[in-house]
Amino acid sequence: MKDINLHIKPGEFVSVVGQSGSGKTTLVKLLIGEERVDKGKVVIGGWDITRLSRREVPDLRRQIGVIFQDFKLLPKKTLFENVAFALEVCGQSGKRIKAIVPHVMKIVGLEDKANRYPHEVSGGEKQRVAIARALVHSPKVLLADEPTGNLDAINAGEITDLLLHINKFGTTVILVSHNKEIVNRLNRRVITIDNGAIVSDRENGKYLL
After folding, report:
1. 82, 147, 156, 159, 181 from 185: Cα distances, Å
2. What mean pLDDT comes out for the span 38-49?
3. Helix, strand or coil for residue 14?
4. Which phi-psi region, left, alpha or beta, contains residue 138 (left: φ > 0; alpha: ψ -120 to 50)?
5. How confident is the model at residue 187 (pLDDT cuts 50, 70, 90)?
6. I want to staple 71 with a disulfide (CB 3.0 to 4.6 A). Which of 21, 26, 126, 179 is the partner?
7. Domain range list for the chain
8. 73-93 as b/e: b if 16+ CB within 10 A
9. Where is mean pLDDT largest: 38-42, 141-145, 175-179?
10. Strand partners, 66
11. Which helix (H) or strand (E) holds 133?
């Protein structure tokens, strides 16, 4: 990345687009603390994460919910258990887990499939589980990195609608995608990256590359 100057307001829905190798993945890694900037700052919710210590990374991950193209579900755990696991590793009590997990499962429309296993549900439903898992800490920012990459057009549209629904609750959503149809249908702010630099930043924009 080079000479990036970017401000995303709380509650915005922003698409970050660009061709393969443009720098989208690097931007994602900078936002979740996997990579560090050589100069400048990365500030999230007033918190400068530029010199984040290893010990502080889990705190950052609770501020930012992340969804990937591959669902990263545990095959031997039920959908409920997959979502609950994100809370268990943080030491949450069983009482709190039983309160939070059904709530987020309802948000993503899977409350009636909580006891199924990943191999028993569709790709779109697996991604919904991944979204539920990302919501358990009530993150300020939801970062979706190519969340529709493994889905057909119908499921991709449903996942995008779900992200819009979550955004209406006030969660900032950053959608990283190369899917022109998805991005253009949203008709929201579009930031285009090419060769590690921002080449376009349009309100209610379109993916033009």
Report:
1. 31, 15, 12, 13, 6
2. 84
3. strand
4. left
5. confident
6. 126
7. 13-202
8. beeeebbbbbbbbbbeeeebe
9. 141-145
10. 143
11. helix 123-135
Q: What is the pTM of this model?
A: 0.91
Q: Which helix (H) or strand (E) holds 13?
A: strand 13-17
For the chain, report the end-to-end CA distance as a whole number of angstroms.
18
Backbone angles phi, psi at 182, to 5 degrees: -60, -50
Coil vs helix vs strand at 37:
coil
Angle of the 94-107 helix axis to the 123-135 helix axis, nearest 10: 130
pLDDT over 90, % of the chain:
57
Residue 164 near residue 186, CB atoms below 8 Å: yes
The set of residues, in sequence order, having a beta carbon less than 8 Å from that of 176 and lying 6+ positions away, is 15, 16, 17, 24, 27, 28, 143, 144, 145, 146
Q: What is the pLDDT of residues 116-137, one digit of tens each?
A: 999 999 999 999 999 999 999 9
Q: Helix or strand or coil: residue 149?
A: coil
Residue 144: its H or E element: strand 141-145
CATH number for the domain running over 13-202: 3.40.50.300
Give residue-wise pLDDT tens across range 68-116: 888 899 999 999 999 999 999 888 999 999 999 999 999 999 999 999 9
Query: Which residues, listed in sequence order, are joined to residue 174 by a DSSP beta bridge?
Result: 14, 143
Does the pLDDT value for residue 23 go beyond 90?
no
Distance CA 190, CA 12 (A): 11
